[in-house]
Automatic annotation (TrEMBL), chains A, B:
Record protein name field: SnoaL-like domain-containing protein
Domain SnoaL-like: 8-109
Lineage: Bacteria, Bacillati, Actinomycetota, Actinomycetes, Cryptosporangiales
Domain of life according to the entry: Bacteria
Organism: Cryptosporangium arvum DSM 44712
InterPro entries tied to this protein: NTF2-like_dom_sf, SnoaL-like
Entry-linked Pfam families: SnoaL_2
């Protein structure tokens, strides 16, 4: 697994970390100082806002897990990948797509889009 | 057509503009001052480099045209869209995918990926 695949995997894991202290430590490790996350439903500038956004999503979808839905396509300092959110081993309720931009081994930007939303 | 769809269409048209003066004027109008374009084969920082990159691609694929290959999915200041490069009315030789990030009505970043390359 490439460094970027490892980082994307670790990034997705932070979305599943429900222990507040561990989640924040992971966010600090994974995201750059000037982090920016934008998807259709949320704009989060900085680690505090990203942490709060992840916490809010976990409250909205308790017990569901984020996972990669396909390969990570990476070059230079950027990657695209599809992810899904669903019960462990069950069908996804939400499918999304992110382009992540990296700097110095951390995630600096995530530009998120949605492919499937609860209907 | 939304403002962002119009801007994406105009952005793609610059890739087809082979008159050097008109192309540069369009690049100046479409791209922000701190423009950055990155795809698997090219990193172009600033309008001079973007202009040179487009010129090089036109030399590599003379007579072919860029066109949108599907809808533009946009929210906030970002959009994703698939494009293709091929003869007018003919099958695409290259299919790509861009995430574009906007600021003040111009394109500021393009994060490009490739879905099909000449085999």
């Amino acid at each position: 697994m490439s460094d970027i695949e490892q980082l994307v995997t670790r990034y997705l894991k932070t979305w599943n970390e429900t222990d507040a202290e561990r989640r924040r430590a992971e966010i600090d490790a994974v995201w750059s100082d000037d982090a920016l996350y934008t998807d259709p439903l949320a704009v989060a500038e900085g680690r505090d806002a990203i942490d709060a956004t992840i916490g809010a999503v976990q409250s909205q979808f308790p017990g569901l897990v984020f996972r990669l839905a396909g390969p990570v396509d990476a070059h230079h300092e950027q990657a695209r990948f599809q992810w899904e959110l669903g019960p462990a081993g069950g069908e996804a309720l939400v499918v999304g797509f992110d382009v992540a931009v990296f700097a110095d081994g951390r995630v600096r930007r995530v530009y998120g889009f949605l492919d499937k939303v609860p209907g």
